[in-house]
Amino acid sequence: MCKKKSNRWFIAIMGTLLHVVLGTVYAWSFFQKPIIAEYGWTNVQIMWIFSISILFLGLSSVVGGILLPKYGPRKLSTIGALLYSGGYLISAYAMFISSLPLFYIGFGVVGGIGLGLGYVTPVATISRWFPDKKGFITGMVVMGFGLGALIMSKVIAPIFVKITDGNIVQVFVYISLVLMVVGVSAGLCMKNPPTEFVPKGYIPPVKSAVNQKFEDSLTVKQSLFSMKFLGMWFIFFLNISVGIMFIGLQSPMIQDLLILKDATMSAEALAVSGATLIAISSLFNGVGRFLWGELSDRLGRIQVFRLILSSQILVFILMIFTTSPLLFGALVCYVLLCYGGGFGAMPAYVLDVFHAKLMPIVYGVILTALSIGGIVGPQIAAFIRDLYVENPEMIRLRTYMIGAILLVIGFVVSLMLTDKSITDGKK
Questions:
Q1: Is the pTM of this model over 0.70?
Q2: Residue 5: predicted pLDDT
């Protein structure tokens, strides 16, 4: 059926749906406490499962960007969906035999590779269908990734937890099957536009002969070793690092504050509250990708990043003194709005600076910022939680002060960047 479809909006919707499937990885904190309770592993040990998956997401995105021109978006998207859903099956068996290393391989390595192949392909492909709405459409597609946690934490996982009476092994098996069916169906719909495709009413920008010459001759090596790429990678990495620490641990964090307010709350009530925050914040994560992506079309790409980074500095400082679960939840939602915003604005930024020909590879490489940030952010937060397990106040101070410092550094670097193409002004 999908092979016959060529409507660009249909393909964009399927790409968004594939990202919803892959974005369920962001609901990891939903499983953090149940797995610890069942198997006795530490926060750091469990967080490495999530961190490894994000690491391989970024690394395999590079491979996906290189392979995309050769194998096409349909094959890579489908393989990505199969590997990610297969990672849940391997993880289920890992828990069945109580093997943490196999858990790392299943959810972390296999699932992470699937995430990377599935993530970069729709973004690079659909941006070619919409040269007239770059920020809008890439924001829409990656919005799906942000909304995946909402679907997982409030719909898919709770349903299977209820059906299986909390059997986490069976839960992972059922999740695998659902993600496989939906993800593969969406992946099969991915296709490139016809050669020389131009949307109705769109007038391509006129380029000078000099800039066109340099654009045609621009190499991957020149792009990746440019100071502009390094600066873009660095601000992306820092924004990811401070946001993803909440994605991995927001449920335990808010549960800590709820216990401070009411030590009599049941484990079930705490889990529901944690899942609610995951769901609401994932909505902000998804909307942020669309909102900031659209704003980048109007305000400029780097201006959006400056707003994202600078506004969060105050939020992190406020978090140090926050003991209200409600206020904490609101602040987390804003951080996730900005976290998603980085993913909404970056594809169009890469496309503007490095052009369509190199976009799949350059964007794949820039996603290694997610690989490193996916380790740095969650591991800092998990380490601090294990180190100061009996001192919630110190956990807040250390975690959020480090986050604020990283954001200040990112904002300073953003002041050195511009929106100009890497070929502008070449002579």
A1: yes
A2: 52
